[in-house]
Design brief:
Keywords: Transferase
GO molecular function: glycosyltransferase activity
Pfam families: Glyco_transf_4 (PF13439), Glycos_transf_1 (PF00534)
InterPro entries: Glyco_trans_1, Glyco_trans_4-like_N
CATH superfamily of the largest domain: Glycogen Phosphorylase B
Number of helices: 15
Helix content: 40-55%
Protein name: Glycosyltransferase family 4 protein
Order of helices and strands: EHEHEHEEHHEHEHEHHEEHEHEHEHHH
Shape: globular
Length: 375
C-alpha cells in the first residue's frame, strides 16, 4: 500500500510570536509521530535553522518556500505536484492551482463579524479570498464552535465540511511548584523592568485587543487593589493594525509597562508571577492567552464575547468588553477576595486540563485521513 504524502504549510514559523505560529509548531512537533505510516512534507521559510532541524524526524522531509505570501501561493501548486503530495494542509489561503485535496484551517473570520478592527484594504482582500479558499477545501478546520458557526453561516460551507478542533496550552505553562519557581518568575519579571505585583495582558497591541479600556480600568482600581500594582502588557504593536504609537496609551503612567516582544522561554514565568490575567478583547477566534494563564495557576478576567466563553467556561470572571467599570470591579474582586481568587485558580487549572495539544494533533490527523479516504 502506498504511503500517503501529506504536505503542511508552515510559513508561519517565523520570529513573529502569535497564535498561528504556536498552532503550526505544536502540530508539526506531533503529527509525524502520531502518523508513522504517512510521509510528511513540511514547507517552511527556513529549513536550516534549529527549529527546522528539530522537526526533521524519520518520516519528515523539509521543503523551503518563499517568505513572500504572493510568491508562496503562486508557486505552491507546482511544488506540490513536483513532490507528489496527496494532501495539503494550509492556513487561511490555498494556492490558485491545487493538484491535490486541501484541508484548510481558518482560525477565525473576525474581519466579517468585527470589520471595524481591520484596515479597509486588508478587509477587502480577506472578504474576497477567504470564502473562495473555504469553499474549495475538502475540509475546513477551525478552533471553536463559535468560528465553526460563523464559517458555515457566512461562507455557505456545508456543515459536514467544517470541523472545530480546539487549541491548548503547552506543557510549559504550569503553576509555580516551589520557591525556586517563584524566584525564577521574579527574576524574569525583573528582566522586563517589573518589580513587585503586576496584572498581566498578553497579545498583539492592536485595536481589537481593547488595550485603552484595560489601561483605564486599571487606573480606576481602588487603593486596596491598585496601590502597589503594575499593569504589564506583553506583546508587540502590530504595524498592520496600530493607528498610533502604543506608548501613547499609558499617558505617562509609570504603573503601566509595555514590555514589547517577550522571549518564548520567558513567557511562562511572566504568567506564573502575575497576580491576575486580564484580557478584555473585543473578539477572538479562540483565545490562547487566557487558557495559558489558567494553566499557569493565574486567575483570569476576560471578555464574555465570541469564542472566549468556550475557552474559559466558569473558570474566570467574564465581562463585556464595553464595560470598563465592570472590568475594574472584576479585577478588584480578584485582588481583594482571597477565597474567590483560590476558587478561580482551582477552576482554571481544571478547565485548562480539558484541552491538550496531543488531542488537537490526533483530531487533525484524523481529519487528514478522513479526506484521504474520500479521494
Amino acid at each position: 500500500m502506498t504511503r500517503p504524502r501529506i504536505a503542511v504549510d508552515l510559513h508561519s514559523l517565523t520570529g513573529l510570536m502569535q497564535g498561528v505560529r504556536t498552532y503550526s509548531l505544536q502540530l508539526a512537533q506531533r503529527l509525524p509521530g502520531l502518523d508513522p505510516d504517512s510521509d510528511y512534507l513540511f514547507y517552511l521559510p527556513d529549513v536550516r535553522g534549529d527549529e527546522a532541524a528539530r522537526l526533521a524526524v524519520k518520516n519528515v522531509s523539509l521543503r523551503r518556500i518563499p517568505g513572500s505570501r504572493l510568491a508562496r501561493l503562486l508557486s505552491f501548486g507546482t511544488r506540490l505536484a513536483r513532490d507528489r503530495a496527496d494532501l495539503l494542509h494550509g492556513q487561511y489561503l490555498s494556492p490558485p492551482f491545487l493538484p491535490c485535496p486541501a484541508v484548510l484551517t481558518l482560525h477565525d473570520v473576525l474581519h466579517e463579524s468585527h470589520p471595524r478592527f481591520y484596515p479597509a484594504r486588508m478587509r477587502l482582500l480577506m472578504r474576497r479570498l477567504y470564502p473562495l479558499a473555504a469553499r474549495r477545501a475538502a475540509l475546513v478546520l477551525t478552533c471553536s464552535q463559535y468560528c465553526r458557526r460563523e464559517i458555515i453561516e457566512r461562507y455557505g460551507v456545508p456543515e459536514h465540511r467544517v470541523a472545530a478542533i480546539p487549541l491548548a496550552a503547552g506543557g510549559e505553562f504550569r503553576p509555580a511548584r516551589n520557591e525556586t519557581d517563584r524566584a525564577e518568575a521574579s527574576a524574569v519579571a525583573a528582566k522586563y523592568g517589573l518589580r513587585g505585583r503586576y496584572v498581566l495582558f498578553v497579545g498583539r497591541l492592536e485595536p481589537r485587543k481593547n488595550i485603552p479600556a484595560l489601561v483605564r480600568a486599571f487606573q480606576a482600581l481602588g487603593p486596596h487593589g491598585g496601590g502597589e500594582l503594575t499593569l504589564a502588557a506583553a506583546g508587540m504593536a502590530d504595524p498592520l493594525f496600530a493607528t498610533r504609537d502604543a506608548r501613547e496609551l499609558v499617558r505617562g503612567d509609570r504603573r503601566v509597562s509595555l514590555l514589547g516582544r517577550v522571549a518564548p522561554e520567558d513567557l511562562p514565568h511572566l504568567y506564573r508571577g502575575a497576580e491576575l490575567f486580564a484580557f478584555p478583547s473585543h473578539a477572538e477566534g479562540f483565545g490562547l492567552p487566557p487558557l495559558e494563564a489558567m494553566a499557569s495557576g493565574v486567575p483570569v478576567v476576560c471578555s464574555d464575547t465570541t469564542a472566549l466563553p468556550e475557552v474559559v467556561g466558569d473558570a474566570g470572571l467574564l465581562v463585556s468588553p464595553n464595560d470598563e467599570a465592570g472590568l475594574a470591579r472584576a479585577m478588584q474582586r480578584i485582588l481583594t477576595d482571597g477565597e474567590l481568587r483560590a476558587s478561580l485558580i482551582a477552576r482554571g487549572l481544571a478547565q485548562s486540563g480539558r484541552f491538550s495539544w496531543d488531542a488537537t494533533a490526533r483530531a487533525t490527523c484524523a481529519a487528514y485521513h478522513r479526506v484521504l479516504g474520500d479521494v
